[in-house]
Design brief:
homodimer; Rossmann fold; six-stranded parallel beta sheet
């Protein structure tokens, strides 16, 4: 089996900056060829709106769907956890539809690794999803990529934080982080 | 000193995929805010033309300058090494001009870390460059980032290859790699 005849599976994981950013870079690169790309957010941070503005310029090749709701706190989250589960499940449903449609060259599942880690969705559901990809390449971002995801991926890069300005008390920067 | 009043220095290094790609993601994200961004290639690979096509869509906010020439082989390179030195020096000159102009929000120096490693340019010249950045953020990509570069950076991410399809004999994929 030659993997080039089907979509490949790419994982960007790790604790460093650049995971979603690299996925956005794939968008920029691939739409140059007229590829159709959709990015689905599984866990929406509050500072992801920069991409939404840019993506308008890249229509109709690039679509962005923010299905996740709010940001899931690790320990003391005041929001309703079930609401996050519902949002992630909805994102998964959309992802399934997009991948099965065969209309997209690349489907990006943003922060899906973290959604699995938080048990918002099951890893088995995601494995099923990527196994049914056919010619669509699938990109999975987010820290804590599950071992089964890595096993089923073709390309895995760990973004490792070597130095992080926000540890020094510097806030996230517009245009860089969001 | 608050780093937010001046441009920050970002480094994407490591042996994994996603360094230049993440820089392109910053382009996509930042032009959404009307930021002006320029990307200067210090070592041009043969498969980097995808970005050039896409960048047309993102004009005039995004500019792309390919000053590097060819690909530098590590051991047995038939090309003239001096020609690569000349190209990298030219890229550095352009970078200096762009950063000093104060017209850009982000200047991306693509593969500059590798150009330093290959001794095409001196690390001291690059340190001077980033020290004069004022409000311009500078992004340096390429493996083997010099310790002095890391020392002078605010944000450093190592892209570490965990799994790479090309080790299995699969060729680079259009829209993903180039």
């Amino acid at each position: 089996m030659n993997l080039m005849d089907e979509g490949i599976v790419i994982v960007y994981t790790g604790n460093g900056k650049g995971k979603t950013t690299a996925a956005l870079g794939l968008v920029l690169r691939s739409i140059g060829y007229g590829f159709r790309v959709v990015m689905i957010q599984f866990i929406k941070g509050e500072w992801h709106y920069g991409e939404l503005i840019s993506s308008e310029k890249l229509k109709p090749e690039f679509e962005m769907i923010a299905a996740g709701k709010g940001f899931v706190g690790i320990i003391d989250d005041d929001h309703d956890f079930n609401e996050h589960v519902r949002a992630a499940k909805q994102a998964l449903k959309i992802a399934k539809k997009k991948i099965e449609s065969g209309l997209y060259d690349i489907v990006i599942l943003d922060e899906i690794n973290y959604a699995i880690k938080l048990k918002l969705i099951l890893v088995e559901e995601v494995i099923d999803l990527i196994k049914n990809r056919k010619k669509t390449s699938v990109v999975l971002t987010g820290n804590y990529a599950h071992s089964q995801i890595i096993e089923n991926a073709d390309l895995v890069t760990e973004m490792k934080s070597i130095k992080h300005p926000y540890k020094k008390g510097i806030k996230a920067k517009k245009g860089i982080d969001f």
